[in-house]
Amino acid sequence: MDARDDWMRSAFPDFRRRLVAILRGIRPDEAVAAGSALFEAGIETIEVPLNSPEPFRSIESLARALPPAALVGAGTVLTPADVERLDQAGGRLLVSPNIDTGVLGRARAFGMVTMPGVFTATEALRALAADASALKFFPASVLGPKGIAAVRAVLPADTVIAAVGGISEKDFADYARAGVNTFGLGSSLYSPGMDVALLRQRAAAAVDAWDAVFAGDGR
């Protein structure tokens, strides 16, 4: 695989729906059932934050159990060592709360999709300079649609922007007006120990809401 192949792999996938399920606190024995319910409902991207119990076991189980089309990875990735372990577990998505060029560079070497956390225009441009696949505006509930739109105005037009933090399906329309179509759903979607039936119900509601806002936009 050459450098160009790596670059192509690290681009943010053009999934039908740009929804990221954040399974903070999930246990390894719960991961496959939860991930399967999410994927079947139409959410193709799943993040297991590293401050969850035995996160790499959960990631490995998800990566093995879900179809190849699923994008599974880790959140709260802080060190190059974490990146190494993520690769060993079969994860292809790296989400971080900050911009660490060592972490992003190592992830890029593995061809991972990267989404570092940003809040300001300076941070956003620095992340893009480090070849981030997408930007995680966090906490989005503090910036709001207008704040993100103001920062977005100075970024390249093709920048993939995700709103994460305090977001639910009820917010999609407001953020769509700011040019955002990618969302990370945490506590509005999943809480530790949640019944799979309830998770499936919430996932279906998020998918329906995304479709209602973005259907017909050319995606």
Helix content: 40-55%
Strand content: 15-25%
For the biggest sheet, the summary is: 8 strands, parallel, barrel
Number of helices in the DSSP assignment: 9
Please compute the radius of gyration using only Cα atoms. 16 Å
Derived structural class: alpha/beta
- Spans of 5+ residues with little confidence (pLDDT < 50)? 1-9
In total, the number of strands is 8
What spatial order of strands do you see in the largest sheet?
A: 1-2-3-4-5-6-7-8
Average pLDDT level: 93
Q: What spatial form do the alpha-carbon principal axes imply? A: globular
Distance between the termini: 29 Å
- Write the element-wise H/E pattern from the N-terminal end onward: HEHEHEHEHEHEHEHEH
Structural commentary:
This protein has 219 residues and is of the alpha/beta class. Helix content is 44%, strand content 16%. The protein has nine helices and eight strands. An eight-stranded parallel β-barrel has the order 1-2-3-4-5-6-7-8, surrounded by six helices. Helix 2 (28-41) links the parallel strand 1 and strand 2. The protein is globular, with a radius of gyration of 16 Å. The protein starts with a helix and ends in a 5-residue tail after the last helix. 45% of the residues are buried. Residues 1-9 have low confidence and may be disordered.
Topology:
Elements lengths: L2 H8 L8 E4 L5 H14 L3 E5 L5 H11 L5 E5 L4 H9 L4 E4 L4 H9 L3 E6 L2 H9 L5 E3 L2 H13 L8 E4 L7 H5 L5 E4 L10 H19 L5
Parallel strand pairs: 1-2, 1-8, 2-3, 3-4, 4-5, 5-6, 6-7, 7-8
Short description:
The chain has helices spanning 3-10, 28-41, 55-65, 80-88, 101-109, 121-129, 140-152, 172-176, 196-214, and strands spanning 19-22, 45-49, 71-75, 93-96, 113-118, 135-137, 161-164, 182-185. The protein has 219 residues and is of the alpha/beta class.
